[in-house]
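Regression test attached.
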Amino acid sequence: MPTRLIECLAASEPLSEVFSDASVLQAMLDFEAALARAEAACGVIPQQAATAITRLATHDGFPLDELTQQALRAGTPAIPLVRLLTARVRAEAPEAAGFVHWGATSQDVADTALVLLLRQCRPILAHDHERLLAALSKLSTEHAGTVMLGRTLLQPAPPVTFGLKCASWHAAARRSWKRVESGFSEASCVQLGGAAGTLASLGDRGIDVGEALAAELGLRYPDAPWHTHRDRLAALLAALSIYTASLAKMALDIALLMQFEAAEAAEPGGSGRGGSSTMPHKRNPTACMLAIAAAKRTPGLLSNFLNGMLQEHERAVGGWQAEWPSVEGIVKATGLALECMVEVAEGLTVDPARMRANLEATSGAIFAERAMMTLAASIGREQAHQAVEEALRQTGSPPGPRDPEGYLGSAEAFRKRLLQGED
Amino acid sequence: MPTRLIECLAASEPLSEVFSDASVLQAMLDFEAALARAEAACGVIPQQAATAITRLATHDGFPLDELTQQALRAGTPAIPLVRLLTARVRAEAPEAAGFVHWGATSQDVADTALVLLLRQCRPILAHDHERLLAALSKLSTEHAGTVMLGRTLLQPAPPVTFGLKCASWHAAARRSWKRVESGFSEASCVQLGGAAGTLASLGDRGIDVGEALAAELGLRYPDAPWHTHRDRLAALLAALSIYTASLAKMALDIALLMQFEAAEAAEPGGSGRGGSSTMPHKRNPTACMLAIAAAKRTPGLLSNFLNGMLQEHERAVGGWQAEWPSVEGIVKATGLALECMVEVAEGLTVDPARMRANLEATSGAIFAERAMMTLAASIGREQAHQAVEEALRQTGSPPGPRDPEGYLGSAEAFRKRLLQGED
Amino acid sequence: MPTRLIECLAASEPLSEVFSDASVLQAMLDFEAALARAEAACGVIPQQAATAITRLATHDGFPLDELTQQALRAGTPAIPLVRLLTARVRAEAPEAAGFVHWGATSQDVADTALVLLLRQCRPILAHDHERLLAALSKLSTEHAGTVMLGRTLLQPAPPVTFGLKCASWHAAARRSWKRVESGFSEASCVQLGGAAGTLASLGDRGIDVGEALAAELGLRYPDAPWHTHRDRLAALLAALSIYTASLAKMALDIALLMQFEAAEAAEPGGSGRGGSSTMPHKRNPTACMLAIAAAKRTPGLLSNFLNGMLQEHERAVGGWQAEWPSVEGIVKATGLALECMVEVAEGLTVDPARMRANLEATSGAIFAERAMMTLAASIGREQAHQAVEEALRQTGSPPGPRDPEGYLGSAEAFRKRLLQGED
Amino acid sequence: MPTRLIECLAASEPLSEVFSDASVLQAMLDFEAALARAEAACGVIPQQAATAITRLATHDGFPLDELTQQALRAGTPAIPLVRLLTARVRAEAPEAAGFVHWGATSQDVADTALVLLLRQCRPILAHDHERLLAALSKLSTEHAGTVMLGRTLLQPAPPVTFGLKCASWHAAARRSWKRVESGFSEASCVQLGGAAGTLASLGDRGIDVGEALAAELGLRYPDAPWHTHRDRLAALLAALSIYTASLAKMALDIALLMQFEAAEAAEPGGSGRGGSSTMPHKRNPTACMLAIAAAKRTPGLLSNFLNGMLQEHERAVGGWQAEWPSVEGIVKATGLALECMVEVAEGLTVDPARMRANLEATSGAIFAERAMMTLAASIGREQAHQAVEEALRQTGSPPGPRDPEGYLGSAEAFRKRLLQGED
């Protein structure tokens, strides 16, 4: 199933697949099947019922349209899901029909399905993350000695190296991913609480069933149901949003370097990339643009999720039901930004000569700090500041040497520390 | 095409239809066809070309999947759209193929298509808005004399009437819609600027073509292209978000009145509405819940749109490309909240007897203000406050009369003013 | 009272003054005094009481610290305000003390005070808005013929004029202000509802007192109290946020033009402006930066306000009490962005020669569209696109003329339309 | 220095103190003094200079107003700070004046000061967090057997215990704090990069000075400067926002339980708490309200911060400068919510009799699930659902036993697991 046209700039294919109707439906059915097996294993329902439910809980031929239409009226997709699955089971194994969804509540299905979908996103993101780290590490090493203008407030500053810049992006990605990993681990827990979160209808077998269910699905079994405590999900979504923002910082830097007037780096053109319908000459920062766009969609979605966290008693009236599109939007944004920046990092064109030329074009003004600090050693920082300012006004350039390599301070040491990581 | 499962609680059917692939595609094709006709009318391209383009610019059989897949790489759906439409035209009317998209840029198609889609939403929303006003006006009139507890900080306060409450919801809806209408009017303008917003490739015929295009599409022709000035769209989206919040305030009030412990009003049950998969006895505030959920999804989407408004020069690198899902999300939320609250208002069960019983159950404590003000006339406001507080502590109720009808102040006058409107 | 250090980059002096303790306190006292006079005029309280209350309702010597400390525990500043004002009146005019705050509720004071503060902001903003329009209009006229690169996705595009750019900023400011004005008008209404919004304790005199109060304060008298209907305030805040975003779009454009590599325009240096503590050579886009920062603080504040609009029954438990800092933050951000962009627009340095040089440095690549469209007239749009792309690859520049003045299309016509306005 | 009136409901005293002018100023001065000492220790500047700078870097008598006024024009408080501190040093120790701020840039001061302020917040929050855990643990244990209505979508559901509810709040607070702690640890690193983040003016002593500076201030020394990589701060702010939301969920539950119609629990009255200016009888959920209000202010502030993370190259033009008020707002909100909920948890009145009465008032309808599950074991889940629904329609209550203690499932097991924690 392709991405919808209205979000064609907002989702990569693999994550669109994860949140496709078939995939969401199957995740819900997987819960029902695993629940039946767990309950059979615990002796709560007959083994044959579990076998029949498992066999029939597949999205093939499931009346999806009926499900979606009834979901809105029911206020949850789980109610029509259970009804339609029960009907299907009854048709083939009547004695099993009564055991569908045994002891569970709507939110148990919906939440566990969401967790299962998120788990599918993890390796997709992880794969691109690893590629990104590798590409940035390579770029950083190659350009350890490539000097370029530092730029502060979009104005020339003392030199940096492109290798240092890449290492900073690398470290931000690595830190961000570590938080995402921790968020996934925390959030990957099954939901099973029944009507009021006590699993009352399972008597004293509630926790046994819950643990068996978690094992069936390969999820963690939490301390207790979390119907109205959404902090674990929130932590994952925050980590994803922060990662997306870090990727967009890198994208913005590169889009700025790609400006015709700077022309120090360029994302790869590739097939179908970055053209213009009217301007045959253009090489647009399309991938960077998509990553920036992704980061402009996440903060508000995260804020919506946080606002939804004020959930009433044992099940919310609105806060919970608002979540799915926000979760989907954030994960998709992260996935798209990652996919784009992998492409950029792996295919980036860097122009060291132009970097040096732009640096030299500043006529040494960027060495004003250096001149000032040299002077300051004898006449003090403030007077030196004024003296150099005066010299700049009169001659356009400060006194003193102008070799960027000689004024890099700890750039290389920082670069190595960034690549190596803090932990 | 049904709503996607992942957003099954976030969209009503008619608005899902508007933003379906076929509909979005057709809006883009409508732009291309109308542009060709406008240019033919201005003598810019041959009339036959316009006729051929118009005939072939239909979504039937258009290779939608190809379009969507290429859009992401191109960074815009417009580039593959133009390519695919040109190929289609070439196959049937080769001489017309060269005139597809003549003089326009990608953003011209995308923005005008968005405006056309929004125009389709307007009557859908307007229809539900009118029904809502009618239902609330009726409720307000019926319950002009139905006394009930006022509630402040969720604690009992002096009495109000249910008619006044309905009139407040009515007035908020009416004010909100007025802003929405004004937003639609402002935003309903065509986009046509060409590569850099000057229509350079149309020579001195740019404005003529633009006006003809606007006339073809029934849109307004603005002062100039607005590629990176998104304030008109922002104003519409803000108005929609504010309306959604007003609807959710009404929904929250009703969900609170529906609590078992209050039981003063209830939204209609209806078919498939508000059940529970585990609890046969439940009558849930499902429609109110969906309206509340809608209002929890809009504020962040609006904030995303506003953040995207910092758009660079003549075309943004990210800010613009982030917009579509936010626009879609906000309009759908408003539409769903409206649809839900129409159902609620038209079918609301009100229990005046329970309202009075709850009021009386406070043992007159809510008349403390009245007692205080009566006392205050002789001994001053502050002493009176203390005296009444003391009486309450000792006897649990204040001195003085306790007829709610006698302590309604300007409730009825306010109710009439609210229904009548300010302008 | 100076701005606090922690928000020293977030507030201009005049608006800091409006939201200073003395000013906020006085606004609340003004309500109490005007209420007393209105009630005296309606015969509800003695005239002498009104006179005494009016005389003593001044912030001079008012125990502000005590007020602020008690506000948090009371959950509203109004309760300690009334208590402290009553004590003050009792000390000087004991017989009047009992009539302080007669018939009003805490939210009446707080909301009306907020509206009074907002009214003080209006002329401050209006003054800067008028200066901005004048400066931009002048710049636009002066530079009607100043050609420069169009830039899309931060890449070169066909030429525009700087005059057109200024006119676009001008029109966005004018449209934005129109919405702000309308927001101020809507929101400038008095709040007077008493305990439950019915003015019960004023018997049948509620509306008379309300109208007299509105007249005393120069505010509009609305249809009814609006304790939990905040849409009018929301509309004003949305309009302010949209204006701020429009200002930041202009600021971003100029910061980009100020880049050393572009150097086409520069905001004025002025005293204390834009230096660097380490780099004597720097001329930073400081004013633009502050405007951009302002626009990065508003969207979330607006979203917070909208989330707070789901207010329970007759007085909210949290939503209302969250409002003040958001309102303050948004208005201050708009005021600061306006003040900064006035300074920028009035003192902007423009370098037409550099603009032309940057344009020419593209070797005519930006005329690719023109070449394509010329070719397209004979061989069709698509083939022409490919032919020009090929020529660019081989020679670095497209065939055909390269005079920017000859390829401006409707730039000048659009410029005039933008300056003139739509209405 | 008291809290400002405009934010009197948005900040507790201790955190207002942390962000007071004197405190912010001192944090910046502490950086300058520690930098001088670190540089002296590394032999970069004379020891006497460090001694003099340290002695004079105190906020006493520092011209704060001048500083704040100049900060806005300079675009940073650091430039006037350095100028004013240098003047002060020159007056007393002329030979030291030249060494103030040696090698550092404005953002080094500002960022490190922010980190120092955040460090001051940590123990304040930690203290309240510990009290909250203790109070909730106590409540949970006391009410392990206190049965009450479960409530889903604000409607009656099968019984829970109040002890389970408290344990859920407890676990959410504990998980949330763990993330906050981790955020503080990550974010507590010094900033020292000089003009372009390379510490060029310190030659090869940059990292030595940085490590010495970190040691002086008791902060962590990170891998490299982080001027435009704000993910660590973002992670802390996200964790604080999530904690605030968890506290507000608890506050909302209690405010709902405090409704007159439910009356199952009440926050403590205490001095000055929760009164009404008009209604002597009221006992408002004031502390809960303030916590809810806090959670309505944080999500947008976090979203603003995330939007600001797209920072250009080596120093941002706007994104960074927007941060301080957002950081302050979030920390203060968390601090206030914590302070309020500590007060609530330590003084909560619980009414087990009313809890049971409300439960019994449902006439057993909440045992419908139980009846259904019992029936289902013989006739299947779906038929049972219909049978019980039918019985409810006819008799108003389901068949079967109605002892809440007998239908608590795993409530007690979950309660113990929640109190004990997962790790």
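Expected vs. actual: identical. The beta strands of chain C are 147-152, 155-161, 265-266, 349-350.
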